[in-house]
Amino acid sequence: MPVPAIEFDTVSFARPGRARVLDRFSLTVLTGEVLALVGRSGAGKTTVLKLVNRLLTPDSGTVRVEGRDTREWDEVRLRRRVGYVLQEVGLFPHMTIRDNVAVVPRLERWTAGRTANRVDELLDLVGLPPRQFAARWPDELSGGQRQRVGVARALAVDPPVLVMDEPFGALDPLTRAELHAEFRHIQERLRKSVIIVSHDMGEAFALGDRVGVIEDGVLVACDPPAAIAASRDPRVRRMLDALPTVPRG
Amino acid sequence: MNRVLAFWLSHRSELAALLGQHVLLVVVSTLLATAIGVPLGIFAARRPRLASPLMAFANIVQTVPSLAMFGFLLPVPLVGGVGARAALVVLILYGVLPIVRTTIAGLRGIDPAIREAGVAMGMTARELLRQVELPLVVPSIVAGVRVAAVVGVGSATIAAAIGAGGLGEYIYRGLSMVDTDVILAGAIPAAALALVVDASLLWLERQLSARRRTQSRRHAIAAAAALAVVVLFSSGVAARRAAGKIVIGSKNFTEQIVLGELLAQVIERDTGLPVDRRLNLGGTIICDRAVLAGDIDVYVEYTGTALTAVFHQPVNTDPAAVFNTVRDLYARTGRTLLPPLGFNNTFAILVRGADARSRGLKTIDDAAREAPHWRAGFGYEFSERPDGYPGLARAYSLRFPAPPRVMDLTLSYRALASGQVDLIAGDATAGLIKGLDLFQLEDNRRYFPPYDAAAVARAETLLRYPTVRTAIERLSGRISAADMRAMNYAADVEHRDIREIVGKFLKSL
User: pTM (2 decimals)?
Assistant: First the structure.
């Protein structure tokens, strides 16, 4: 059995003075696997992602990335091995698209030539021809285009792990479907280990090799889409029934 | 306007120097305020608990009128005193607030997602600040710098009150001579300077906040920096003052400026030493502290004023006793009171000449009878000093229907002549008494102590330059009240150049 890319071992986490966000939460993401984590707002999905790149550390239990406790990682090294895509994208408004994608390579002190090649390669990968887009500014792009830049930026130094926080949540359904296809296409080539968070079961089914259902900080199910769709667990059924986009067939 | 132009033409080298000093004060203080304000703002934005008290303190500082601030700083060692250094401290204090405020606002205005993206990409706090936060906050900072610089241009005019130079000198000079042209000669370039500063920083702000290629932003910053260096250098050259000069001070009214000029010219003529004129300092206490601190070497004081206002001694009406007491008190604090110049500039209780003639007023007692239906107006000092209005009211049982109006001393002569008030306390030697047809009432109860004019000098300076003492003593007993009134009249009413008036008088001695 290969070393899991990401491992949550009975992790508990609470914000100071508030109820527990995660309660003895365990989860394993295999190398090259896409795990789609679904739950309602406030279920603890974003917390899970922030524990992976040590924006947060667990109160008890252990989070391991590539077999190593996040607390033992140098946090900067860790974060550069974990690409992070935010729902709000968070592109730097004072930088062109090219400079936005080039941020991490530059932090890593890549040569200018290598950085430029990599930026072109990534923009091609996410379907934004560099000649047309590299010199433009974030506020000149549509929401979908910005999200593609966000993905390109997260992939810049080829991190083995990718965590995505409702990356397609704010997009219209057509654009979203388009990006889903794009994502699957990219993932086929790159084989990253991915956690993608969504409140949309349809999106989870479309993207995940496995789908995890999280409720009140507990992982109530984690199985391939077909098994989830067939689950009789009332907590899983509740999610399935509540969401408008259930899979057809 | 033509007269203002003529004034500029005849004073062009002085104008250039004052403009240079003004620009230098503003540029240096704004740069230092930025150097302090930006880190402070960054620090405060990170620690919200510290931010509120910090902002509260900065706001309080901002509400202190600048003249009062100069007053507070006078006795403070190192940063206080008289001259450009103290002015810079005050201007920096005023400039820091808007910069801190806009820095904090700019940092708080950054979308949290942007910051989070930076952290998640593995930026250290330093990288985040340099690559993300600072570039995004620069336009806000420039907006703050713009406010600070424009406020600085205004506040710097007030700095002339403590001898820091700048265009305020003309404004104060004009105010004390009641000469609108001279006021305008300082006020117009100051206003123009404010507009230029505002416009150029606004340009820079737009240049930086517009979505621009990094390169053109760099060009804008480089252009601004180059301009700042050029301005700094050229105003430095214009404002240059040679070291090792005898520094002459004076208070801020015509007679004092005339006497300061007189000391300056007699020292220049008889000793050949270079002289620096810091005329027009903002009052007795400022001059006193300035001599004490060594910022000025000599100025003319009045014995009665020194007795009560400087040394807080009880009022005494014997001229010789007052002179001796004051000389001893000065000697104890390292200063030398030189022999009296000859005239006694006592307070003069003045009424309109027309009133005096029609009602047969001769003495203050006569006026006390009219007081119940009169309005009085007094300068700030006279209203407060123990030998001023409070004592006068007791001595003569003066009762006005309303409390006396407190107004600028030189304006009070005009207020009396134009009928806004009916009685004022002026100087016995004021040229305006003659110019505006005012009448001096006799102090028949001998209330006012003597105010013999005499130069106060730093003992150290007199020891080092004995010729300075000889030069000043050449004036002892040589200036009569009539001489003084004539010179004041020439300056205040005929608007003649003070250097000329003084030069002519010196020749006549």
Answer: 0.67
Phi, psi of B397 (to 5 degrees): 50, 50
With an 8 Å Cβ cutoff, are A77 and B136 in contact?
A: no
The token pair at B501 is: 């008036």
B230 and B288 share one domain? no
Spatial neighbors of B116 by CB under 8 A, at least 6 apart, are A55, A86, A90
| Pairwise CB contact (< 8 Å): B122 & A103 | no
Domain CATH for B100: 1.10.3720.10
B126 touching A (Cβ < 8 Å): no
Residues in chain A with CB shorter than 8 Å from the CB of B135 are 94
- Nearest Cβ partner for B122 among A76, A96, A99: A76
Strand-pair category, A34-38 with A193-198: parallel
Q: Which residue segment(s) compose the domain that B338 sits in? A: 246-343+454-489
pLDDT at residue B242, as a whole number: 43
Total number of domains constituting chain B: 3
Nearest to B121 among A103, A137, A139 (CB): A103
**CATH code for the domain of B363:** 3.40.190.120
CATH code of the domain in which A136 resides: 3.40.50.300
8 Å CB contact between B445 and B393: no
- For B172-203, the pLDDT digits (tens) are 877 766 678 888 999 999 999 999 999 988 88
Q: If you write DSSP's letter for every residue of B336-365 in order, what string do you get?
A: EEEEEEEEE--EEEEEEHHHHHHHT--BHH
**What single-letter DSSP state applies at residue B430?**
-
Cα pseudo-dihedral A108, A95, B126, B142, rounded to 10: 160
- The amino acid present at B369, given as its one-letter code, is R
> Are residues A154 and A89 in contact, defined by beta-carbon separation less than 8 angstroms?
no
- Residue pair B492/B435 in contact (Cβ under 8 Å)? The answer is yes
Residues 6+ positions from B128 with CB-CB distance below 8 Å: B115, B118, B119
Quote the CA–CA distance of A79 and A48 in Å, as a whole number: 15
Q: Which residues of B touch A80 (CB under 8 A)?
A: 121-122
ipTM for the predicted complex: 0.86
Q: Is the pLDDT of residue A245 over 90?
A: no
Pairing outcome for strands A161-165 and A193-198? parallel
- Which pLDDT score is estimated for A118? 93
Chain length of chain B:
509
Least Cα separation, residue B120 to chain A (angstroms): 6
- Rounded to an integer, what distance in angstroms lies between the CA atom of residue A38 and that of residue A202? 10
DSSP B391-427: HHHHHHT---SSPPEE--HHHHHHHHHTTS-SEEEEE
* Range list of β-strands (E), B256-332: 275-278, 298-302
CA neighbor of A142 nearest in space, from A195, A91, A198 = A91
The per-residue pLDDT for range A169-204, each reduced to its tens digit, is: 778 888 888 889 888 988 998 899 999 998 888 889
- The total domain count for chain A is 1
Q: Indicate the SS3 state at residue A63.
A: strand
**pLDDT score at A171:** 80
- Alpha-carbon dihedral sign for residues B333, B335, B339, B343: negative
